[in-house]
Design a protein that fits this description.
Largest sheet: 3 strands, antiparallel
Structural class: alpha+beta
Number of helices: 3
Strand order of the largest sheet: 1-2-3
Helix content: 40-55%
Radius of gyration: 12 Å
Mean pLDDT: 95
């Protein structure tokens, strides 16, 4: 089985930006030589429905504003935490 970290590196070799989400354990963002582990934002989960889509929306919104990749991942993490509560 491939680890999430190996998967992030593999995907980054085949795309401009790779994001691997690992649920309550956070996410990884990789682009070229740049790598960031993003801690999951604290939350008291009630229903995880939509968390992945919300993470993606937050990431893409921050990216569209030209924010650094680490910040994009953090924005995704914050709003994904809010949607599960």
């Amino acid at each position: 089985m491939t680890s999430p970290l190996n998967l992030a590196y593999y995907l980054a070799d085949h795309s401009e930006i790779a994001i691997v989400k690992v649920g309550k354990d956070g996410s990884m963002v990789k682009s070229g030589d740049e790598y960031h582990f993003i801690e999951a934002w604290p939350a008291t989960p009630v229903d995880a429905t939509g968390a992945g889509d919300t993470y993606a929306a937050g990431f893409l919104y921050a990216h569209s504003l030209g924010m650094p990749l680490k910040v994009c991942g953090e924005v995704g993490s914050i709003i994904a935490a809010k949607v599960v509560e």
